[in-house]
Amino acid sequence: MLRQGCRCPLRGPAKVAVAFKEAPLSRAVSVNRSSGCSSLVSLRSFSTRGSRLIFSGDFSSRYRGRFGLSYSDLLGFERRPREALDHIPRFMQASCFSAAANTPGFSLKGDDYTDRALEALAGMISLAQEYSPPTLETELLVLSLLNQGEDGLFTMIMKQAGVDLDKLRSGVVDFVERHPTVSDNSTRTLGPVLQKVLSSANSLRLQWHDEYISVEHLAAALADEDSRFLVRFLKESKLTANDIRQAIKAIRGTRRVNTKTPEVSYQSLKKYGRDLTEAAMANELDPVIGRDKEVRRVIQILSRRTKNNPIILGDPGVGKTAIAEGLAQRIVSGDVPDTLAGRQLISLDLGALLAGAKLRGEFEERLKSVIREVQESSGQIILFIDEIHMVVGAGSAGESGMDAGNILKPMLARGELRCIGATTLDEYRKYIEKDKALERRFQVVLVDEPRVEDALSILRGLKERYEMHHGVSIRDSALVAACVLSNRYIQDRFLPDKAIDLIDEAASKIKIEVTSKPTRLDEIDRKLMQLEMEKISIVSDMKGGQDAAEQQRLQTLEKKMADLKEEQSRLNAIWEQERAEIEKIADLKQEIDEAKVEQQKAEREYNLNKAAQIRYGKIPELTQKLATLEAAAKREELSSSRLLRDTVTAEDIAQVVGSWTGIPVSRLVEGEREKLLGLEKALNDRVIGQEEGVRSVAEAIQRSRAGLCDPNRPIASLVFLGPTGVGKTELCKALARQLFDTEEALLRFDMSEYMEKHSTARLIGAPPGYIGFDKGGQLTEAVRRRPYSVLLFDEMEKAHPEVFNIFLQILEDGILTDSHGHTVSFKNCIIIFTSNMGSDLLLQASGTKDREEVTQALMEIVRRHLRPELVNRMDEFVVFNPLSEANLFGIFDLEVAKLQARLTDRRLTLSVTHRAKADIVQAAYDPNFGARPLRRAVQHTLETPLSRLILSGSISNGRRVGVASKQEELPVSSEKIEDSKIPENLQFFLYPQEGTAQHMLASGDTGDATKDTGETAAFS
């Protein structure tokens, strides 16, 4: 409640109370008058629901006139409560709310104050409700101004003047709490000192030629007139009112208060930007490595007379922002031309600039104030705008609105504003390229993704920073693994960002292990807790009487607990010692880093004596201590008794990659050489009966990986020829699994879907203007997301001949450009085409001689179907032989092994006798269809009966199930299973739960059954 007491000439009893209720802001104005006493006016907050009008007494026309309100006005407020808020300033300038005679110039007219100043005055009301002072005085105004937050102008002024803000806040709160309070907090008057401060603020407004009383006027007036608190506080802090005025001048500059929100234009760069040169001086920026060419190009553009505005373009994570940071570091170190020496590089935060700009024009006002500060610096400030595409359209209120881009254009063209922009290629094309007037103001600096070798150099430069932050050591092998594994397995991000993230997360994981209790110690703690509970149980049982056995058990238990506690104490001591050593190493690294920062600062200040002492004295001494501690820690690390590990290794990186991608760690750490050398054997283990074809594929890939083939072509370009069901697709899956660690790396395209000429567009994307242009191409998008993959184009003879035109560039140069202009690399892909052309000739061939003739005839058929330029680009034509019955036995074993893997969750074991296997294979063999009928036979003869038996409860978890031929005798003590779904030529049975290893199948063909037991061990 805000009230001003003064003498009023009105006579006669009268009382008017007007209350308005309207969310979100509600206020009430009441006027009380009694004959011969002070007139009181109060402004108070109230609830936010409904609206109410209350008035009583003699509301004379003369009194209403003083307020500028009529009786009908007040009645109208009940129907339109929002209008009441607009009339509150008219109440405040009423004659009975004027200043007392001893405070000339005092005004509480709402239109005289800025929004933040009026907010501070209103804030005193809620503080008065909390502290219940007899009058409203200056200490409440100080506290209300402080409550406006860190970005409040009063706080900024005090901070600029060197005031301890924590001390100021605690001092004013203590001052308020020490003063007497009143029980009735419904009405209060303005204190005399506060009246004097408000009068002084109004005088300062006129003196400084401002239109409104702002927060800086209140701050200066408080420093001059607040005899209650602030003047004494400043004196104790050895500050004066002049210091406050100098701080106001530093923040405000030459600006005038001619709007209701002038604070947005004060120190705009400080509020909406970050000084990168200051951060570089404080050693807060990471070193920038491998981007010297790009930084030099930026410096060259900035040194131009006009249009000196570089824009850095590149994919996310390649280091665009790092180039700006590298420029800031060069400016600080003096490694720039005279045109840039001593300049400030400010990074503008567009998000902060837009945040909270509710009213139209507020964003533009903020941006103009930023630009004004840059212009007033006379070229000393260079602006860096990250995500500069956000500028286009920002602040626009429609088609006719002026956005931020249009505000920047004139100054960019004239060279008055030197600006560095950064954005991605896609955003540049989408937003800035469309605005040709804005585009020509910038000069493009392209930043490509670094190679693995360059990314490794970057990581080596950052290694020390991450070691110091996490307090761990990072091996060089871990850096190599981060670059190689991220490049191979994390395809949706870019180097060096993804490799840095791997190092960061792996180091964080090791840091957590160092600060947490070791596994061995944790196991002992849990074991002790378990034994303690067991001891309590034994003691409880012994209360009824002494039992010798229980007594013996208790003694044994106590001895075991004593041994564990001794081991616990020993391990705790080791753990504390190792933690102390690791922390000591981390502290030394921190001390070395601080010494380097101190040395750089001394060199910048030309304090060469101090710089030399640090460089040749302090740093070598600390480095020697660190080397001694690290050598001792390395020796202890080799000991098996060490509990903690503070070193990041390649295995740790592989674990992080595994958690991101789901690829098993064991395959990640397996070397490329081991994979290639074991490629042929691994493929033969999975693809049965195609030894010659597998050898051709393995040799082609080994030639490419050894670097003997053209590095600009795909790893291998192969054509698989043969009848259906012989393993062509299976070999592709095996290649993807062996080389790229997951079958998901196989990208399959059924060429029967591309039988029309226009279907070519589906592979590279629809042209602009056609439906589907925004989706991209099926082939190009798939390879962009997974560059390391096996591309399988199945049944190539079914595709339209025009489709093969796009493969010519892929097979020769390893690249393809999609409809959006993106160039996609196929250099890390294996490209495989499959076809059934001439398969009838292969099925008719009998001997080796016939097979050679058939192969030649087959190639003639291929040449007739495919154009010569496509045939000449293939590395190998691999002919797959029809499968024999003997081959199907090996394939049957693989199928049963897959079935056994699915049964593992139920702890079921499956054994199939040799005779039963022969019956199934013979029934399924058909050379014209290959192995696919066998897969169906396994489903019908094994999977279907097993699923029925499991669902019916005939087979319980943990049992061993046998499958035998109908003619075979079952093992002794086995239990035959009867079911209508079991094939007539087979019988299912359960082995005994115990001693299954010695129970052999007993039949007339015992040898086969005995042999089968050894064969089926792999399925157990």
UniProtKB/TrEMBL annotation:
Residues in coiled coil: 547-639
One Pfam family cited in the UniProt record for this chain: ClpB_D2-small
InterPro entries assigned: AAA+_ATPase (IPR003593), ATPase_AAA_core (IPR003959), Clp_ATPase_C (IPR019489), Clp_N_dom_sf (IPR036628), Clp_R_N (IPR004176), ClpA/B (IPR001270), ClpA/B_CS1 (IPR018368), ClpA/B_CS2 (IPR028299)
Domain of life: Eukaryota
CDD domains the UniProt entry points to: AAA (cd00009), RecA-like_ClpB_Hsp104-like (cd19499)
SUPFAM superfamilies: Double Clp-N motif (SSF81923), P-loop containing nucleoside triphosphate hydrolases (SSF52540)
Keywords (A to Z) from UniProt: ATP-binding, Chaperone, Coiled coil, Nucleotide-binding, Repeat
Stored Gene3D superfamilies: 1.10.8.60, Clp, N-terminal domain (1.10.1780.10), P-loop containing nucleotide triphosphate hydrolases (3.40.50.300)
Single GO BP term: cellular response to heat
Gene Ontology CC terms: cytoplasm
Residues covered by the Clp R domain: 110-254
SMART domains for the chain: AAA, ClpB_D2-small
GO molecular function: ATP binding; ATP hydrolysis activity
Cross-referenced PROSITE patterns: CLP_R (PS51903), CLPAB_1 (PS00870), CLPAB_2 (PS00871)
Residue ranges of the region described as Disordered: 1001-1020
Similarity remark: Belongs to the ClpA/ClpB family.
Protein name per UniProt: Chaperone clpB protein, putative
Source lineage: Eukaryota, Sar, Alveolata, Apicomplexa, Conoidasida
